[in-house]
Amino acid sequence: MTSLLQAAAQQAPAAPEVTTRIGEPNAISVAFFFAFIAITLGITWWAARRTRTTEEFYAAGRTITPVQNGFALAGDYMSAASFLGIAGLVSTTGFDGLIYSTGWLVGWPVVLFLIAEPLRNLGRYTFADVVAARLRQTPVRIAAAIGTLATVIFYLIAQMVGAGGLIRLMFGLSYETAIVIVGAAMLAYVLFGGMIATTWVQIVKAGLLLGGAALLAILVLAKFGMNPLALFAAAADKYGDAVLAPGKLVAAPLDAVSLGMALMFGTAGLPHILMRFYTVPDARAARTSVFYATGLIGFFYLLTFVLGFGAMVLVGPAAIKAVDAGGNMAAPLLAEVLGGTPFLGFIAAVAFATILAVVAGLTLSGAAALSHDLWVNVVRHGEADAKEQLNVARGATVALGVIAVLLGILFKGQNVAYMVSLAFAIAASGNFPALVLSIFWKRCTTEGIVSSMVIGTGTTLLLIWLSPTIQVDILKHPGAWFPLKNPALVTIPLSFAIGVVVSLATRDDVASEGFAAAERRMHVGEA
Amino acid sequence: MSDLRFQTLAATRWRIAISLTALMVVIYFGFILLIAYDKPLMGRLVTRGLSLGVLLGALVIVLSWVLTWVYVRWANTHYDAGLAAVRREDAAR
User: Fold this and answer.
1) Is the CB of residue A398 less than 8 Å from the CB of residue A365?
2) DSSP conformational letter for A481
3) Residues of chain B with C-beta less than 8 angstroms from the C-beta of A294
């Protein structure tokens, strides 16, 4: 009987046809958009006058407070995929979407327990500083730069492709125009304002995103007596109890575990996140900032429960899919239903700010790998003056900005969530094992760490190429050589194993003799 | 003395970091494996509008934050006090 009712509910038009102004440029969204650009460029102008040294360009002069860094970390991390993607997924599939809400958060405790404080005490600008602390500079820096750039570029492509599609949907601009606007605004922030401007753009964005999402959630809950359970019950009444139960998403357990591993350990290997720990004065501040970030991000993901089911009940899956098949417009549609065009305009501007802040953080960390790791430490062996370092860093920023725009246009139509999970898989297999081994294991050698990074990154890319997503979904081959969609289940253990085996097979006296001093510095900090 | 104190402190921090990481792994992958292997259980309603899956999902998020709080609280009191003692002894030498 219930199943009959469910079938009937699914066949009947799920919601009255929603008339939406999404996709039409409306004065209010354009006004919010210009207000955001004006404020962030004002911040950039202010920050530019405080950005004269490399320490200011890469690390905001190490003056960011723990609360500020907590917001900035949240702003750096919560991408449009989290806000629009998860809300969309929950509104169209119910419980399955929530699996992502949990997965995107569980990496943060790992960052805190294993990485944040040692990183702050052992490094200056990039995570390669930490890995190279007691190993041979040249090979380690080159390997770490490969891992960093691979992660950053896949992440950037995902954000750019997402930005193009979103802005086209929301403001009615062409895909290419949207990408060029994102690229130009991001370049202005990073080029002139460095980490100071990037930090404040991320703080403003985090405030807007959390405020906007919270307001939206309160408006939803107001319709259900401020009781989330009443909302979930309404969703179950309308679309069946199945919306509160796991569905098709986790059909293959190994796929789910593999994706989970990439999300959990990838967060601790994301170069743009790790770089933020250098902006605070000391390890204690780094530690506290993760606590704030985890609270803010966790709160946001709890809000996605309400936003997703709210959109399911108040807008309806059919109406959401009619606007965008991927469900990405669920949150903006919900805003329009609850607060009319003004609120839609506000949420559209928030989504735009969200993308800009993430893209700026990514570009800055990529530029640091190119200039600080490759140019200054490999090409110039650490002997470059401050002016040259800044010039190279700015040159690298422009190069990455242009590359991001071109790749964004080239990769038009690619699946955004998949590109992001790819970036996480590379970070988890290429960067994370090398970081952990070099920080905590006395016996590790240059050869071991370099093999771990290069083979970790390489096999991840190879197995992604051989995975069903590329071979079956994109290339339309009948089958794939490698069964998993995300390779992390294989590549993370492989990368650790290679680091250990190669280290044991080689000797690095400098590395093992330097361990005592490095261990002391990792806890106590600079003397 | 400073070295012994430091070694003990470093070992304690490592033990706590690895235990909390292991706990996080158990919590999250326990959740994922329950979803993978016992969908009917996760779909069972605890009360009207709340399935076990939704409840546990929210709990995973809250517990992640609680674990960071546990670590930060330990580090801000015991670990930092230990570090301060190590620094004092270093300075006295």
Assistant:
1) no
2) S
3) 64-65, 68
Residue of B nearest to A440 (CA): B14
Interface contact B1, partner A, CB < 8 A: no
Q: Do B53 and A253 count as a contact with CB atoms less than 8 A apart?
A: no
Q: Least CB-CB distance to A523: which of B9, B29, B43?
A: B9
Number of domains in chain B: 1
Quote the DSSP letter at residue A17.
P
Task: Report the distance separating Cα A157 and Cα A170, nearest Å.
Answer: 20
* Best residue of A110, A121, A244, A294 to probe chain B, by most B CBs closer than 10 Å: A244
Indicate whether A425 belongs to any domain.
no
pLDDT score for A13: 42
- Closest residue in B to A238 (Cα) is B49
> A-contacting residues of B 4-43, CB under 8 Å?
6, 9-10, 13-14, 16-18, 20-21, 24-25, 27-29, 31-33, 35-37, 39-40, 42-43
Give the residue numbers spanning the domain of B76.
2-92
Q: What is the CATH number of the domain that holds A196?
A: 1.20.1730.10
Written as six digits, the tokens of A272 are 């743009």
| pLDDT per residue rounded down to tens, chain A (527 residues) | 333 333 333 434 444 455 677 777 677 777 888 888 899 899 999 998 888 888 898 899 899 999 999 999 999 999 877 788 888 889 988 898 888 889 889 999 999 999 999 999 998 899 999 999 899 999 999 999 999 999 999 999 888 888 887 777 777 788 899 899 889 988 999 999 999 999 999 999 999 999 999 999 999 999 999 999 999 999 999 998 889 988 877 677 888 889 889 999 999 999 999 999 999 999 999 999 999 999 999 999 999 999 999 999 999 999 988 887 778 889 989 999 998 888 888 888 888 888 888 999 999 999 999 999 898 888 888 888 888 888 999 999 999 999 999 998 988 877 777 788 889 999 999 999 999 999 999 999 999 999 999 999 999 999 988 988 778 877 888 888 888 888 999 999 999 999 999 999 999 888 888 898 899 889 988 75
Euclidean distance between CA atoms A246 and A97, whole angstroms: 9
| Identity of the amino acid at A213 | A
pLDDT greater than 60 at residue B63: yes
Give A324-382 as a DSSP string. -TT-TTHHHHHHHHHHHHHHHHHHHHHHHHHHHHHHHHHHHHHHHIIIIIIIIIIISTT
Cβ of residue B85 closer than 8 Å to a chain A Cβ: no
**Closest Cα of chain B to A287: distance in Å?**
7
Domain region containing A370 = 59-417
Of A113, A244, A257, the CB nearest to B53: A244
Overall domain count for chain A: 1
- Residues A102, B87: C-beta atoms closer than 8 Å: no
Q: What is the DSSP string of A134-158?
A: TS-HHHHHHHHHHHHHHHHHHHHHH
Residues facing B47 on adjacent strands: B50
In a domain, A245, yes or no: yes
Cβ–Cβ below 8 Å for A109 and B53:
no
Q: What residues does B50 pair with on adjacent strands?
A: B47
Residue A24 lies inside a defined structural domain of this protein: no
Q: Kindly state whether residue A379 falls inside one of the protein's structural domains.
A: yes
Pick from B36, B37, B64: which is nearest to A108 by CB? B64
Beta bridge partners of B45: B51
User: What type of residue sits at position B31?
Assistant: F
Chain B positions in Cβ-Cβ contact with residue A523 (cut-off 8 Å): 6, 9-10, 13, 83, 86
